[in-house]
Amino acid sequence: MSTDHSTSRRGFLKASTAAAGAALAAGSSLAYVHAAGSDVLRVGLVGCGGRGTGAAVQALKADPHVKLVAMADAFEDRIAASLAAIQKRDEIAAKIDVPPERRFAGFDGYKNLLASGVDVVLLCTPPHFRPAHLRAAVDAGVHIFAEKPVAVDAPGVRAALQACEDAKKKGLAVVSGLCLRSSYGFREMVKRIHDGALGEIHTLQANDYRGPIWVRKREPGWTDMHWQMRNWYYFTWLSGDFNVEQHVHFLDVCAWIMKDTYPAKAVGMGGRVVRTGPEFGNIYDHHAVVYEYANGTKLYSNTRQMPGCHTDMSAHAVGSRGRAQFVERRGGLAIVAGGKRWVYEGPENDIYQTEHDEMFASIRRGQPINNGQYMANSTLLAIMGRMATYTGQQITWDMARHSKEDLSPKAYAWGPAPEPTIAVPGITKFR
What we know:
- It is a single chain.
- By secondary structure, the protein is an alpha/beta fold.
- It has two domains: 3-180 and 359-372, Rossmann fold, CATH 3.40.50; 183-346 and 377-402, Dihydrodipicolinate Reductase, domain 2, CATH 3.30.360.10.
- The chain has 14 helices and 15 strands.
- The protein has helices spanning 3-25, 50-62, 76-87, 109-114, 130-140, 154-170, 184-194, 224-230, 236-239, 242-245, 248-257, 351-364, 372-391, 397-402; strands at 41-46, 66-73, 103-105, 120-123, 143-146, 174-176, 201-210, 265-271, 286-292, 298-305, 312-319, 322-327, 333-337, 340-343, 395-396.
- The strands form two sheets. It has a nine-stranded mixed sheet with strand order 14-13-12-11-7-10-9-8-15. Strands 3-2-1-4-5-6 form a six-stranded parallel sheet, with helices on both faces.
- Helix 2 (50-62) crosses helix 3 (76-87), helix 2 packs across helix 12 and helix 6 packs antiparallel against helix 13 (372-391).
- The radius of gyration is 22 Å and the shape is globular.
């Protein structure tokens, strides 16, 4: 692509975004076709782990006229490994154009990537970085896919919400990695519940019982920051703890069932029983939280990561007329009401692919999807549960929303890192 063509094309895309934003501000019902049907959308990947690599593949498969043109990660070897994995996919190999000068390593790599001329960015780093990356992407005027969760603390949630509101004003897409909302079966189930299949909901349950996942032990020569970044899942400042990083999926399903309303308060308990070594940082290995809505509806949230134990990843809803279960397997989506059992038997889909298909389609038709509100609030729902388990106190939604606890490190550099202090219920204070 020549410099002149690239420059003129970039100007066209910026003008398209501005026009879409102006149309939205004016309340126009006209669908503005962004980037035309055959114009190439340039994609950048920030965060080159397994999920980021998968997201890049899905983005390249989502639209016939896209190219992966830039990649960024804190570590050079992660960029190289991710690029090599993507290049092995024959069906998308021709859509990859990431020369060395557009591979950006280090904490500021995302800034260089956003300045390199991308139109769409995939934000797939550890969750701590999501609010800053969202803000930078919105300021750069690019469309966004944001993996879940979108923050690890309340200040981050507030920043993410503001960035997503600004994206809406600019006519930019913000698509969430809360992928269960992209399941055709889950969508049909929630539609039936919203249409009254269960009557008035009074009880919800979100389960995430699973075994252990990867852990990376410290290597000689690593600074504290190197180790924590490599082993990010086990440090609350980076992951939010696993009830935020992973269990957010089924908590979000429960919020979706409740029409994106959120509980008034929560109490809970949790701790470390199996994952007690230093390689497991400072996160817990189990959490149990009871959330309560203003009308008395209760959400029972249970999550555990231990070897040799029963597994169950599901959501359940019970109402005045019946009950429903959400399980990710054929026949696992069912509603029992009025003495009759209904089971979803419709088409199945790759939920990860669908979220990208729908994002790029929305960009093309000039009606960009913006999931900002629920992806931020469901993140806060999970953080609220962690606040309850870490402190042992009752936490209200307003307390969580206005919390001043900022888990950010003093500096982003390859040296010291936040001390991995383990929370002790009854002693750890709410902030």
